[in-house]
Amino acid sequence: MVFSSGNYANKVCLHSLLLLLFSANVAFSGTLVTSIPGFDGDLPFKLYTGYITVDKTEMFYYFIESEGNPKEDPVLLWYSGGPGCSAFNGLIYQIGPLAFNMTHYAGGTPKTYYYPYSWTKDANILFVDAPVGTGFSYATSAEAYAVSDKITATQVYTFLRKWLIEEYPEYLLNELFIGADSYSGTSGPIVVKHIADDNNAGAVPRLNLKGYILGCPRSDADINDNSRIIYAHQMGLVSDELYEAAKESCNGSYAEVTTSQSQCYEDIQSMKHCTKDINKNHILEPKCTWTSPHPYGESLRRALEEDSDGLTLNSDDVPEYFCHTFGYALSYIWANDKTVREALHIREGTIYDWKRCNQSLSFTNDVNSVVDYHKNLSKLGLQVLIYNGDHDLVIPNIGTQQWIKILNLTIVNDWRPWLVDGQVAGELVTHHKNTSVGNAFRCSTGSSIIIQSN
Questions:
Q1: How do beta strands 363-364 and 147-148 pair?
Q2: pLDDT tens digits for 61-100?
Q3: How far apart are CA 243 and CA 265, in angstroms?
Q4: How far is CA 64 from CA 96, 119, 129, 188, 356, in A?
Q5: Cα-based angle 195, 197, 203 (whole degrees, multiple of 5)
Q6: For the chain, percent helix, then strand, then coil, each to nearest 5?
Q7: Count of C-beta atoms within a 10 Å radius of residue 91
Q8: What are the residue ranges spanned by the domains of the chain?
Q9: How many C-beta neighbours within 10 Å does residue 74 have?
Q10: 350 DSSP 8-state letter
């Protein structure tokens, strides 16, 4: 739709009027949390928690105001992967202002402390447990628990629009970014497309979309599966002979291999045997089976990595650096503590056993690739940040770089070091297409990043 200057001015006036009406009449459902068990003193930032009704679901959120200038800093919506992992992951392990104190844990409510390098220094961050069945988000009917990639994107978009319009309209004019990681790299671009499509269709009020951020994103299933084999070979996890044999027997395609492809299937199984005892989230770290009360068998090791349930917790014997899953285990104790739930204003009787990652989520994978979404979004002049770890075997950076090349972005500045405090933290490359520019870097500590901007 094309507006004349007069019509555009009228639209801006209408938008401003709607903001005033929303500000005057809205009844906030979010509740300010000033203190939480395990944290000494009052929180040094503003944390709000609450629920937004989306059809027959109640989507739970943590909202942390920017520690800079909340009225002018951007709003970043963030949800985690899995599918089924709580946005609490992002809040306490990745980009939020809280972290667990894993030193000398002796039982009881785990201690938390203020993390000074949070993204909330410069952004208002809205963490949402999505899709329904994740974290503290719940459904009011059994059938509503059945979700998929497309349903997740719709839930997140509907949640965001209702949150901004009905609950926090004062943030409608702030720049808006969508953030997701891991498996949610599939639904994240679809959320962005929903916003862009509705903005183009003249939806009022218009969401002030500026870009999106995806961490270690699952963007194309086939590319991702193939990149695991290539990455395992490049990192020396499988031999040259085995890799070459698999490359020949599988014709260079390792995704969805069946038993009918006998030699290819056998070669792939041999590769999996070589990497089965490696921590695939970070190949340089151990799998920390020492925390299991019965540390034997692949099923228990997998349960430790994904569920961190039923553990014997004692951090005195192993330095915290060597076991990130110990911190994951603490989240179960913290989030299932009655006093913590009361502080967060969790509705009683809704979630009986909180899981960091809900492995029993009723989920259908109905999107195999979102590369075409990225292609179309790259034409809109959005700012985009895409990063993933250089020690990640689950979603290797090799695959990320492969699908980015498919976007056919022109290189403006080629691969180069990216520095933090004078130290090389990764590598950076700048791309350009139409009105957008992209930067990519791979951190030596575990991240590859792409940025696109006007």
A1: parallel
A2: 999 999 999 999 999 999 999 999 999 999 999 999 999 9
A3: 13
A4: 8, 10, 14, 21, 20
A5: 75
A6: 35, 20, 40
A7: 23
A8: 5-215, 386-453
A9: 18
A10: T
Upstream peptide bond of 205 is cis (omega within 30 degrees of 0): yes
- The mean per-residue pLDDT over the stretch 27-43 comes to 86
- Rounded Cα gap, residues 60 and 159, in angstroms: 10
How far apart are the C-alpha atoms of 67 and 45, rounded to whole Å?
Answer: 7
Number of neighbouring beta carbons within 10 Å of residue 356: 26
Residue-wise over 316-353: b if at least 16 C-beta within 10 A, else e? eeeeeeebbbbbbbbbbbbbebeebbebbbbeeeebee
Predicted local distance difference test score (pLDDT) of residue 289: 53
**Alpha-carbon distance 412 to 345, whole Å?**
49
Q: Which of 127, 150, 123, 125 is nearest to 52 (CA)?
A: 127
pLDDT band for position 192 (cuts 50, 70, 90): very high
291: helix, strand or coil = helix
Instruction: Report the CATH fold assignment for 5-215.
Output: Rossmann fold (3.40.50)
Q: How far apart, in Å, are the Cα atoms of 317 and each of 105, 281, 320, 323?
A: 11, 22, 9, 11
Which runs of consecutive H residues, i.e. helices, occur in 212-280? 221-234, 240-249, 262-275
- What tokens appear for 32 in the block? 């300010």
124 φ/ψ angles, rounded to the nearest 5 degrees: -85, 125
Cβ(126)–Cβ(63) below 8 Å: yes
Strand segments (E) across 370-420: 383-388, 410-420
Whole-model pTM over 0.90:
no
- Amino acid identity, residue 357? C
Q: Which string of b and e fits 13-50 if b means at least 16 CB within 10 Å?
A: eeeeeebeebeeeeeeebeebeebbbbeeebebbbbbb
Q: Are 188 and 217 in contact (CB under 8 A)?
A: yes
The secondary structure element, H or E, covering residue 454 is: none
Give the integer Cα–Cα distance in Å for 230 and 107.
43
> With bands split at pLDDT 50, 70 and 90, how would you rate the model's confidence at 435?
very low
CA torsion 139-143-148-151 (nearest 10°) is: -70
CA–CA dist 431, 449 (Å, integer) = 12
